[in-house]
Amino acid sequence: QDAIDRKEKRSETFKTAVHGLEMGTPALKTEKLGHRAPQWVRDNLVTMCMRCKEPFNAIMRRRHHCRACGYVVCARCSDYKAELQYDGNRLNRVCQECYVFLTGHVVLEDQEGKHKGILEKGAAEVSDRSLLCSSLQLLDKNGKGGTRGWFVIPQDDPLVLYIYAAPQDVRAHTSIPLLGYRVRDLPQGDSRHLFQLVQSQQVYTFVADTEELKRRWMRAMARSAMGITHPEE
Predict the structure, then answer these.
(1) Alpha carbons 154 and 132: distance in angstroms, whole number
(2) In what order do the strands lie in the sheet with 202-208?
(3) Which positions fall inside the PH domain (predicted)?
(4) pLDDT per residue over 125-155, tens digit each?
């Protein structure tokens, strides 16, 4: 019966976490770490470790959840154990940052406070303060295949388009400086809403989910391409 009760408790915690994430509920505050069960970030929302930013793969780098903050992290970044009050002070797998906070122990390779590079801003952080963000598909050069990702034009860097693999990733995999590009509309083909960024011989072709979303992106990119940095201009 005790095992059943624990399983039901974990199941309800997971359901609550997923529902909270879908409703946009903020993550646990630092002072609540270990005292309350976290909201788990769903596996399919990230493609890389939310701590060290290394991409996941099926063999060498698997996904794990930190039982303190709910982040999706790799085995190396979650190779720590700490007592969690909400779980009867039992030892649980936690990430390095939560381990340092909960135990007070210093980890030599801790790089907290390291300056974030241009691509090392989290997608959620950038999206919250963006001129426009959504899922788009970027086609390859032959126009037959492409990569679907999360695209963001940040308010604090409005002349650059950041491309993330997933909306909760902690690092963009590439960026495109928009200044000087020309935005070109394309006729709808195969029910796809197509448009392009063009500059000299460089061409990027995008696919939006709807015609309305396509128009919003064309307008946002055109403004950035002309160097307009404020929404009211």
Answers:
(1) 7
(2) 174-177, 160-164, 146-154, 130-139, 202-208, 193-199, 182-185
(3) 129-226
(4) 788 888 999 999 998 877 667 788 999 999 8
Using alpha carbons, list the distances in angstroms from residue 20 to 17, 28, 38: 5, 11, 10
- DSSP lists the bridge partners of residue 146 as 139
Q: Nearest CA to 39 among 62, 66, 77? A: 66
Which residues does 129 contact at the CB level (< 8 Å), separation at least 6? 154, 155, 156
CA distances from 155 to 86, 114, 178 (A): 38, 23, 14
Range of lowest pLDDT (50-64, 77-91, 125-139, 148-162): 50-64
**Which of left, alpha, beta for 133 (phi over 0: left; psi -120 to 50: alpha)?**
beta
- β-strand pairing of 130-139 with 90-94: unpaired
Cα dihedral value 48, 64, 122, 180, nearest 10:
20
d(CA 23, CA 91): 30
Rounded to whole angstroms, how far apart are CA atoms 70 and 63? 12
Cβ–Cβ under 8 Å, residues 94 and 68 = yes
Q: What domains are there in the chain, each with its CATH number?
A: 29-112 (3.30.40.10), 123-226 (2.30.29.30)
* Tokens linked to 166: 């997933």
At residue 201 the predicted structure's pLDDT band, cuts being 50, 70 and 90, is: confident
Query: What would the two tokens of residue 40 be?
Result: 């788990």
